[in-house]
Amino acid sequence: MFKNDLLKNKRILVTGGGTGLGKEMATHYAEHGADIFICGRRENVLKDTAAEIEDKYDVKVSYESLDIRASQDVDSYIQRIFDEGPLDGLVNNAAGNFISPTKDLSHKGFDAIANIVFHGTFYMTQSVGKRWIESNHKGSIISILATWVWTGSPYVVPSAMSKSGLNAMTQSLAAEWGQYGIKVNAIAPGPFPTKGAWERLNPNGEDGSVMGDNPMGRVGEMKELQNLATFLMADGCEYLTGQTIAIDGAQYLTGGGTFSNLSKLSEDDWEQMRNMIRSSNNKDKADR
Ligand code: HXC
Known about the structure:
Elements lengths: L10 E5 L4 H12 L3 E6 L2 H14 L4 E5 L5 H14 L4 E4 L14 H29 L3 E6 L3 H4 L5 H21 L4 E8 L5 H7 L6 H4 L10 H12 L10 E4 L3 H6 L10 H21 L1
Parallel strand pairs: 1-2, 1-4, 2-3, 4-5, 5-6, 6-7
The site of hexanoyl-coenzyme A has 18 residues, from helix 4 and helix 7.
């Protein structure tokens, strides 16, 4: 879809880039020529991913063990990166989530999610953004959200609340930082199976709870997400900012519509429905 040097000379940080969607996006950026920074909590995982990407592509991959909940650690990490040169892109991918009835959540459980997603993502975004503004350097920020930012979601309330806040951050900062050439967007992926998310959101292994009723009848292909993340990161669409883009096969639009479940009807079912509607219309006319 893209030329292999599309992101050449760019330096891109992907939080939570050691595994899952973060690793996939980092790999795709490397394939298109960018030098990569990944951070996360597990150093051994980051080390393996960095080596794997460097083996495949002729780029530099640096890693750092970091918990984005610690604001001071975030800021000093970003300072160390900028000491060697400015970043060009930030992908806020690190997150935490698990399914639980809301009545059973402890305050610590709520905080665990909110501190990572809501607070940690802000620390990271502000830390990078203020250095871009100070140094008059343009940049692109992409946050990985979920379609729950528009619909809310039962059983993942701390995540839905936190990611909705980040949706507001995306819109607000696009307006505030547009004057500095900083583009701020978000991606709301539907079901893209990864080990970490599936184990926490789909613990019994039945795809139904996470899949919902997807009109395309399938989960997302990683390439589809990678291509969107690369398009948003590349130069050439600067006017596209402040947007959260769903990539979910229209799952959330389908689930949210009053008549969405009608897609399950067969041709025979429809024929029966038509006959029922016609006979009801005819009855009305006869009564007039
Ligand atoms: C109820 C739980 C729980 C669970 C943890 N807690 N898991 N409560 N049900 N399943 C509670 C604990 O009991 C504790 O509260 C508090 O949360 C903190 O737990 P810790 O394990 O000490 O926290 P921590 O080590 O910081 O772990 C953070 C975590 C963990 C978020 C809880 O799951 C994690 O590290 N996840 C990171 C990766 C991840 O979540 N990836 C999936 C992202 S998927 P008490 O009161 O008992 O002390 C995603 C969107 C996917 O974001 C969209 C798909 C469509």
